[in-house]
Design a protein that fits this description.
The chain has about 260 residues and is of the alpha/beta class. The protein is built from eleven helices and six strands.
């Protein structure tokens, strides 16, 4: 990993974690967020950093699939007024904020991580989100840090240990499983263990489809049904990494 590293904070993951840690404390999310962010800055002393936000506007995923995240609960009413306060705290810490209308924070982080790698910077995506494990690339210096309970670093071997598949198989793994939290359909009859076993045996989703006749009857029936939406699911779970952003990794040096 290069000595200079760009830390990319999955900001709303931090915010919700902070809110539920102190739900009864007035401005508890802002208070806890500040503590977490300051601890990270002190411990890791990043050379480059960005707090990446989702925007309130619908994304391209909502445009191609209106039911995307339709089952999500609304933001708690007492959290909503804390968001501007948290943004002020981030600015006071001299942490740049990056966001792009029409895309999720995952896409912004994915694009910045890839560009940082191309510029010779290491990239650390700080998030508990399993979807972001598709971005892990040891050769490029892209890793994922889950600091929710202690610190768990995910390099290539770490992704395999956590999910049972390699980073380059994560998109196909998520396509088979779907994502109930995002209201994204997967393949009926295929769970986490089954998806990992199929990808280990056949290598990819295309490989699974090519060997459909070798699947168990329940898996085969589910795959036949899911062919109607598999391409859409794969597009929904794939992190975009080529956005036209208003900044570059070099501009995110931590002052």
């Amino acid at each position: 990993m290069p000595e200079e590293r760009l830390y990319l904070l999955d900001t709303f993951a931090f915010i919700f974690r902070s809110y539920f840690a102190n739900p009864r404390l007035k401005n508890g999310a802002a208070y806890t967020f500040a503590r977490i962010a300051l601890q990270l800055l002190e411990k890791h002393q990043p050379t480059h950093i960005a707090a990446v936000f989702d925007t309130p506007e619908p994304t391209f995923r909502h445009e191609i699939y209106p039911e995307y995240k339709a089952n999500r609960d609304a933001m708690p009413e007492d959290l909503r007024p804390q968001i501007p306060l948290i943004r002020q705290l981030i600015e006071a810490m001299n942490i740049p904020i990056v966001e792009l209308s029409g895309f999720e924070a995952d896409d912004v982080m994915g694009t910045l991580a890839k560009r940082a790698a191309a510029d010779g910077l290491g990239a650390v995506i700080v998030s508990p989100d399993k979807d972001l494990l598709q971005l892990v690339d040891d050769a490029a210096g892209i890793t994922v840090l889950n600091n929710k309970d202690g610190e768990i670093w995910h390099d290539r071997e770490g992704v395999k240990a956590r999910m049972g598949v390699w980073p380059e198989q994560v998109v196909d793994y998520l396509s088979l499983l779907g994502d109930a939290s995002d209201n994204v359909k997967g393949v009926p009859g295929i769970g986490e263990k089954g998806a990992a076993q199929l990808l280990e045996k056949f290598g990819s989703l295309d490989g699974v489809l090519a060997h459909e006749s070798e699947l168990k009857p329940r898996q085969k029936a589910g795959l036949d049904e899911a062919k109607e939406w598999l391409d859409l699911t794969k597009r929904l779970v794939t992190v975009v990494t080529d956005l036209d952003l208003p900044t570059t990794p070099a501009k995110l040096r931590y002052k």
